[in-house]
Amino acid sequence: MTVNQPAEVGHDNWNERIALAQEMIPLISSLHRNNNVVTSIFGRLLISVTDIDIIKAHERAHQVIEEDLPLEQTLPVLRELTSMDLGTASIDVGRLAVGFAQSGATDLADYLHSELEEVIGGRTNVKEPTDVVLYGFGRIGRLLARILVEREASYGGVRLRAIVVRSKGDGDIIKRASLLRRDSVHGEFNGTISVDEENNIIWANGTKIQVIYANAPQEIDYTSYGINNAIVVDNTGAWRDRKGLSQHLEAKGADRVLLTAPGKGDIPNVVFGINENSVTDDDKVLSAASCTTNGITPVLKALGARYGVAHGHVETAHSFTNDQNLIDNYHKGDRRGRAAGLNMVLTETGAAKAVSKALPEFEGKLTGNAIRVPTPNVSMAVLNLELETEVTKDEVNDYLRKVALLSNLRQQVDYVNDPELVSSDFVGSVKAGVVDGLATIANGTKHLVVYVWYDNEYGYSNQVVRFVEDIAGKRPRVLPHRSPISEL
C-alpha cells in the first residue's frame, strides 16, 4: 500500500486541508506540553507551527517519497499518539503514517505501540539539563544561541547559561542583544528578547543568558553564576590547539570545551553522525570540524559504503566570510584582501583532507579547493569521484534519497530534485548537506559527480548542537528507528 497523491487543490480542497491542519495544532502542542514529544514530518520539525506550516511540511514530503503526503493520513497518527503514555522523544509522524500504510497492518494503535514501545511509560525519566556556555558571540555563536534556546524549550536536555565576550564599551549588551534579535540572513529571532543591563543578562524566550565580560578563559568563575560542569563552546577561533583550548578547563565550573572549527594536532575532529562514538569521557577538548567537512563527510560515507571511493576531488563554492575584506585592503591571507562582495576568490580548504579524520578509509584519497563567492550564506560542494563500482545516475539518486529518508544519516543528509532551487532556498536548512539529485552525473562508468548544498552557518550550527547534546548524554530518542546505510 502506498501513499496516494492528493487531488488537485481547488478552493474546497484547500479549505479541507486548512481544517485538518488546524485540528492537528492542539494535538501537536499537547504532545509537546504533556509528554515532551516533538513531532516532525520526514525530519521537518513541527514546533510552534501554523496551519500553513503543517501543509507545507506535508507538501515537501514529495522531495523524499516522490509524492505529497495527505494530511488525512497523518491526522489519525497524531490522534492516537495523544492517547499513549509517551516519554521524551522526537517522533516522525510522516514516517509512521507511511510505514503503517506500507506494512499492511490493519490496527493503527497496535502498529504504533510496536514502533514506539521503548518510550511508552517513560514520562518520569527526566534528567537535569546540562549547562552550556558560549565563548564568543559572532555569526556561529548567535545561531547556536537561537538553536539552544529553541532546543531547551523543545527537549530540556541542554540549556544555554552564559555567553563570554570582551566588552566593547557602553551599550555593549544592548548591541549584542540586538544582533541576536535581528539577522540579515536568518531573519528575526523567533520570540522575545529583553535586556537587564544592571545585571548583564539577556532574556530570550524566558531563558536567562548571563553575559560575562572577560579577557581570558581561565579568569572566569562560572560557579559564581550557578554554572557547573559546563560544556564551553568556543566559537572565537582564537585557539585551535590543545594548549590554547585547555585554558577553558582552568575556569571553575567548566568541564569540557568544544571548538567550532577544525582542531589542530591530536584534538578529535568530530562530524556528528559519523564518528561521535569514538569520543570517550576522557576527551575534554574536542572539535566539531568545519562547516564544509560536516557538509560533505556524511554524503561521502554513504557513497563509500555502497560503491567504494578510489579517489576524488572536492571543489567548494563557499559564501564569503567575516575574515575577508569588504573592499580591497591589506590581508595576511592570499587573495582574501580583495573585495568579498565583488569577486570570486580562489582559496584553499582543508576540508577534503579533514574528511579522513572522521573517516579513516578516505586517507589520501581526496584533494580539495575552494572558491569564495559573493553571497552571504549557503555554499555548494562538488564531489568529483572515481568509484570502485560502475553506477548510473538513477541508481545513485535512488540510494541517496533513501539515505535521506530512512537511514541513520537522515539528520545529516537531505535530498532534493527541484529544478528551480537556488542557494537562497537552502538558508535555514538544518541538515549538514543537501544532495541536488538533478545535478548528479553518472553514466554507467565508475565516474560520479554529486552536488551538495549546505547552509554553512545554520546547518553547521545544528550539527554543533547535536554534538553538544551527545557529549552531554542528552540526545532525544528518535523514532521510528533509522536504518544503517548497509541495510538500504
From TrEMBL:
InterPro entries named in the record: GlycerAld/Erythrose_P_DH (IPR020831), GlycerAld_3-P_DH_AS (IPR020830), GlycerAld_3-P_DH_cat (IPR020829), GlycerAld_3-P_DH_NAD(P)-bd (IPR020828), NAD(P)-bd_dom_sf (IPR036291)
Molecular-function GO term, any one: NAD binding
Upper classification of the organism: Bacteria, Bacillati, Actinomycetota, Actinomycetes, Mycobacteriales
Keywords from the named record: Oxidoreductase
SUPFAM superfamilies: Glyceraldehyde-3-phosphate dehydrogenase-like, C-terminal domain (SSF55347), NAD(P)-binding Rossmann-fold domains (SSF51735)
Oxidoreductase as UniProt keyword: yes
Sequence ranges assigned to domain Glyceraldehyde 3-phosphate dehydrogenase NAD(P) binding in this UniProt record: 130-291
Gene3D superfamilies in UniProt: Dihydrodipicolinate Reductase, domain 2, NAD(P)-binding Rossmann-like Domain
Family of this protein: Belongs to the glyceraldehyde-3-phosphate dehydrogenase family.
Provenance organism: Corynebacterium propinquum
Cited PANTHER family: GLYCERALDEHYDE 3-PHOSPHATE DEHYDROGENASE NAD(P) BINDING DOMAIN-CONTAINING PROTEIN, GLYCERALDEHYDE-3-PHOSPHATE DEHYDROGENASE
Protein name per UniProt: Glyceraldehyde-3-phosphate dehydrogenase
